[in-house]
Design goal:
The chain is mainly alpha-helical. The protein is about 70% helix and about 5% strand. Strand 1 and strand 2 form a beta hairpin. Helix 4 packs parallel to helix 6. The termini are far apart.
Protein backbone atom coordinates (compact mmCIF):
# COMPACT_ATOMS: atom_id res chain seq x y z
CA UNK A 1 0.00 0.00 0.00
CA UNK A 2 1.47 3.31 -1.08
CA UNK A 3 1.14 6.17 1.40
CA UNK A 4 0.69 9.78 0.36
CA UNK A 5 3.19 12.39 1.44
CA UNK A 6 2.46 14.15 4.72
CA UNK A 7 3.20 17.78 5.51
CA UNK A 8 4.83 18.45 8.84
CA UNK A 9 5.44 21.93 10.23
CA UNK A 10 8.76 22.24 12.00
CA UNK A 11 9.01 25.21 14.37
CA UNK A 12 6.46 27.94 14.95
CA UNK A 13 8.49 31.11 15.07
CA UNK A 14 9.70 33.50 12.47
CA UNK A 15 11.62 31.79 9.69
CA UNK A 16 9.92 28.49 10.21
CA UNK A 17 9.01 26.79 7.07
CA UNK A 18 7.14 23.77 6.04
CA UNK A 19 9.05 20.68 5.25
CA UNK A 20 7.63 17.85 3.34
CA UNK A 21 8.47 14.41 4.59
CA UNK A 22 7.25 11.28 3.11
CA UNK A 23 5.99 8.92 5.76
CA UNK A 24 7.45 5.90 3.96
CA UNK A 25 10.87 7.58 4.03
CA UNK A 26 10.57 8.05 7.79
CA UNK A 27 9.53 4.43 8.17
CA UNK A 28 12.48 3.23 6.14
CA UNK A 29 14.84 5.46 8.13
CA UNK A 30 13.49 4.10 11.40
CA UNK A 31 13.90 0.53 10.17
CA UNK A 32 17.48 1.16 9.09
CA UNK A 33 18.23 2.69 12.48
CA UNK A 34 16.64 -0.21 14.32
CA UNK A 35 18.38 -2.73 12.08
CA UNK A 36 21.69 -1.11 12.97
CA UNK A 37 20.88 -1.45 16.68
CA UNK A 38 19.87 -5.07 16.22
CA UNK A 39 23.03 -5.80 14.26
CA UNK A 40 25.13 -4.14 16.98
CA UNK A 41 23.31 -6.17 19.64
CA UNK A 42 23.82 -9.40 17.67
CA UNK A 43 27.49 -8.56 17.14
CA UNK A 44 27.88 -7.89 20.87
CA UNK A 45 26.25 -11.20 21.72
CA UNK A 46 28.46 -13.01 19.20
CA UNK A 47 31.56 -11.38 20.71
CA UNK A 48 30.43 -12.38 24.22
CA UNK A 49 29.80 -15.96 23.05
CA UNK A 50 33.27 -16.07 21.49
CA UNK A 51 34.87 -14.77 24.67
CA UNK A 52 32.92 -17.30 26.73
CA UNK A 53 34.03 -20.13 24.45
CA UNK A 54 37.64 -18.97 24.76
CA UNK A 55 37.32 -19.01 28.56
CA UNK A 56 35.94 -22.56 28.49
CA UNK A 57 38.70 -23.88 26.19
CA UNK A 58 41.78 -24.92 28.13
CA UNK A 59 45.05 -23.15 27.58
CA UNK A 60 46.85 -25.87 25.61
CA UNK A 61 50.33 -24.55 26.37
CA UNK A 62 49.67 -24.59 30.11
CA UNK A 63 48.07 -28.07 29.90
CA UNK A 64 50.99 -29.44 27.87
CA UNK A 65 53.48 -27.98 30.32
CA UNK A 66 51.59 -29.47 33.27
CA UNK A 67 51.55 -32.87 31.53
CA UNK A 68 55.28 -32.56 30.85
CA UNK A 69 55.98 -31.82 34.53
CA UNK A 70 53.93 -34.89 35.48
CA UNK A 71 55.59 -37.16 32.89
CA UNK A 72 59.07 -36.19 34.10
CA UNK A 73 58.25 -36.75 37.78
CA UNK A 74 58.21 -33.05 38.70
CA UNK A 75 55.10 -33.50 40.83
CA UNK A 76 55.33 -30.24 42.80
CA UNK A 77 55.41 -28.21 39.58
CA UNK A 78 52.74 -30.43 38.01
CA UNK A 79 50.52 -30.00 41.07
CA UNK A 80 50.84 -26.22 40.91
CA UNK A 81 50.09 -26.20 37.18
CA UNK A 82 47.13 -28.61 37.39
CA UNK A 83 45.70 -26.78 40.40
CA UNK A 84 45.75 -23.53 38.45
CA UNK A 85 44.15 -25.24 35.43
CA UNK A 86 41.47 -26.91 37.59
CA UNK A 87 40.62 -23.56 39.18
CA UNK A 88 40.52 -21.87 35.78
CA UNK A 89 38.49 -24.68 34.14
CA UNK A 90 36.52 -26.24 37.02
CA UNK A 91 34.36 -28.39 34.68
CA UNK A 92 37.38 -30.17 33.18
CA UNK A 93 37.55 -33.63 34.79
CA UNK A 94 41.01 -34.37 33.37
CA UNK A 95 42.62 -31.47 35.25
CA UNK A 96 41.05 -32.64 38.53
CA UNK A 97 42.20 -36.21 37.78
CA UNK A 98 45.79 -35.11 37.19
CA UNK A 99 45.72 -32.84 40.25
CA UNK A 100 44.59 -35.84 42.32
CA UNK A 101 47.39 -37.95 40.86
CA UNK A 102 49.97 -35.27 41.75
CA UNK A 103 48.66 -35.11 45.31
CA UNK A 104 48.88 -38.92 45.56
CA UNK A 105 52.43 -38.92 44.21
CA UNK A 106 53.34 -36.35 46.87
CA UNK A 107 51.72 -38.42 49.65
CA UNK A 108 48.88 -35.94 50.14
CA UNK A 109 46.16 -38.59 50.09
CA UNK A 110 43.25 -36.60 51.58
CA UNK A 111 43.79 -33.90 48.92
CA UNK A 112 44.16 -36.60 46.24
CA UNK A 113 40.87 -38.17 47.32
CA UNK A 114 39.10 -34.81 47.18
CA UNK A 115 40.36 -33.98 43.68
CA UNK A 116 39.63 -37.48 42.35
CA UNK A 117 36.11 -37.44 43.79
CA UNK A 118 35.53 -34.16 41.99
CA UNK A 119 36.82 -35.67 38.72
CA UNK A 120 34.43 -38.61 39.17
CA UNK A 121 31.51 -36.25 39.82
CA UNK A 122 32.30 -34.52 36.51
CA UNK A 123 32.86 -37.73 34.53
CA UNK A 124 31.73 -40.92 36.28
CA UNK A 125 32.36 -43.00 33.14
CA UNK A 126 36.18 -42.79 33.28
CA UNK A 127 37.34 -45.88 35.19
CA UNK A 128 40.83 -44.43 35.71
CA UNK A 129 39.37 -41.88 38.10
CA UNK A 130 37.81 -44.57 40.30
CA UNK A 131 40.92 -46.75 40.12
CA UNK A 132 43.12 -43.91 41.34
CA UNK A 133 40.59 -43.00 44.02
CA UNK A 134 40.85 -46.59 45.30
CA UNK A 135 44.64 -46.30 45.23
CA UNK A 136 44.55 -43.07 47.27
CA UNK A 137 42.18 -44.64 49.81
CA UNK A 138 44.44 -47.71 50.03
CA UNK A 139 47.53 -45.59 50.58
CA UNK A 140 45.75 -43.58 53.27
CA UNK A 141 44.64 -46.81 54.98
CA UNK A 142 48.18 -48.24 54.70
CA UNK A 143 49.61 -45.20 56.47
CA UNK A 144 46.90 -45.34 59.16
CA UNK A 145 47.65 -49.04 59.82
CA UNK A 146 51.38 -48.27 59.95
CA UNK A 147 50.74 -45.63 62.58
CA UNK A 148 48.45 -47.96 64.54
CA UNK A 149 51.11 -50.70 64.45
CA UNK A 150 53.69 -48.36 65.91
CA UNK A 151 51.39 -47.28 68.75
CA UNK A 152 49.76 -50.57 69.75
CA UNK A 153 51.39 -52.76 72.43
CA UNK A 154 53.80 -55.35 71.04
CA UNK A 155 52.25 -58.82 70.98
CA UNK A 156 48.67 -57.59 71.38
CA UNK A 157 45.95 -59.14 69.23
CA UNK A 158 45.02 -55.74 67.85
CA UNK A 159 48.63 -55.04 66.82
CA UNK A 160 48.83 -58.41 65.03
CA UNK A 161 45.62 -57.61 63.20
CA UNK A 162 46.91 -54.15 62.27
CA UNK A 163 50.15 -55.70 60.96
CA UNK A 164 48.23 -58.24 58.89
CA UNK A 165 45.99 -55.56 57.39
CA UNK A 166 48.96 -53.30 56.82
CA UNK A 167 50.75 -56.05 54.83
CA UNK A 168 47.65 -56.68 52.70
CA UNK A 169 47.18 -53.03 51.89
CA UNK A 170 50.89 -52.49 51.32
CA UNK A 171 50.72 -55.20 48.65
CA UNK A 172 48.14 -53.05 46.84
CA UNK A 173 49.39 -49.53 47.57
CA UNK A 174 53.12 -50.22 47.81
CA UNK A 175 55.34 -49.42 50.77
CA UNK A 176 54.95 -46.13 52.61
CA UNK A 177 56.79 -43.33 50.89
CA UNK A 178 56.96 -45.25 47.61
CA UNK A 179 56.12 -43.56 44.36
CA UNK A 180 53.91 -46.36 43.09
CA UNK A 181 52.33 -44.54 40.23
CA UNK A 182 48.59 -44.23 39.80
CA UNK A 183 47.36 -44.09 36.21
Amino acid sequence: MMMSPQTVQVGTGRGSRLRRWKLPLLSVSALVLLQGCAHHNAASKAAEAGASAARSQPNLNAANQADQFYATGQFEQARTAFKKLAEQYPRNAYFWFRLGNCEAQLGQYPQAIEALQYAIALDPSDARFSYNLAFAHSALARDAYAKARSQLPVGSALRREAEQNWRLIEAVAGPSGSAKSPL
